[in-house]
């Protein structure tokens, strides 16, 4: 009987030892996962700071471009923030950095804005865009001129508006505009021709 009791004790002790070892193993695995997540977080933080070092100086130009597109300072700020966030995520999937950071950042913002504009127009009960009373876009122009110019530009299609703004306000080349709008130089020329024609006719 003593031997049986001793045997059971040994077996129970062995089982406890196995469970304890399993528990230690899970704990180590969790520690490794937490450490990996911590390292990943640090890596993301470093990447984000490097991204900001390169693209933060472009924020004023990005905001000004978004202001022309949205005709609202609040919507422009939201669009600029979203464009920076999208650009950061997209860069993580790219093999090399864009050769023209400004044009590429404008491209990200343009795609976001065009997609949102299409969604708004396709939404039930949507109404045509109304010119904003906040028209202080170009600081060197009189207010009345800015408001008139902003009202006319707002009548253009998203592609035409972006092309006209990038060419006539930011003085980008046709190639840079084509990159920013994900199109060809021929498409840019056509958008500029249509957009400028509508502005002259108005």
Task: Record keyword descriptors for this entry.
mainly alpha
Radius of gyration: 29 Å
Q: Give the helix tally.
A: 8
Q: How many β-strands, per DSSP?
A: 0
Largest beta-sheet characterization: none
List low-confidence stretches.
Answer: 127-149
Oligomer, anyone?
single chain
Order of helices and strands: HHHHHHHH
Shape: elongated
**How much beta, percentage-wise?**
under 5%
| Distance N to C terminus | 107 Å
Structural class: mainly alpha
Q: Roughly what percent helix?
A: over 70%
Mean pLDDT: 75
Model description:
The protein has eight helices and no strands. By secondary structure, the protein is mostly helical. The chain is elongated. Residues 127-149 have low confidence and may be disordered. Helix 2 packs across helix 3 (73-91) and helix 4 (101-122) crosses helix 7 (174-180). The protein has helices at residues 2-55, 59-70, 73-91, 101-122, 143-154, 158-169, 174-180, 185-201.
In short, what is this structure?
The chain has helices at 2-55, 59-70, 73-91, 101-122, 143-154, 158-169, 174-180, 185-201. With 202 residues, it is mainly alpha-helical.
Sequence-ordered SSE layout with sheet pairings:
Layout lengths: L1 H54 L3 H12 L2 H19 L9 H22 L20 H12 L3 H12 L4 H7 L4 H17 L1
Helix pairs in contact: 2-3, 2-4, 3-4, 4-7, 6-8, 7-8
């Amino acid at each position: 009987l003593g031997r049986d009791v001793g045997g059971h004790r040994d077996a129970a002790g062995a089982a406890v030892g196995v469970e304890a070892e399993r528990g230690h193993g899970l704990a180590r695995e969790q520690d490794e996962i937490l450490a990996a997540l911590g390292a990943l977080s640090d890596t993301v933080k470093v990447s984000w700071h490097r991204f900001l070092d390169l693209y933060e100086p472009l924020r004023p130009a990005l905001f000004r471009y978004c202001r022309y597109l949205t005709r609202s300072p609040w919507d422009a700020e939201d669009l600029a923030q979203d464009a920076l966030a999208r650009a950061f995520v997209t860069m993580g999937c790219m093999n090399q950095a864009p050769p023209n950071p400004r044009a590429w950042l404008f491209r990200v913002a343009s795609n976001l804005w065009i997609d949102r504009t299409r969604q708004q127009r396709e939404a039930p009960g949507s109404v045509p865009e109304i010119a904003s009373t906040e028209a202080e876009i170009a600081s060197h122009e009189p207010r009345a001129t800015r408001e008139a110019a902003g009202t006319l530009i707002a009548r253009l299609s998203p592609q035409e508006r972006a092309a006209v703004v990038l060419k006539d306000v930011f003085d980008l080349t046709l190639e840079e505009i084509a990159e920013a709008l994900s199109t060809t130089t021929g498409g840019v020329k056509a958008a500029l021709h249509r957009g400028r024609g509508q502005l002259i006719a108005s």
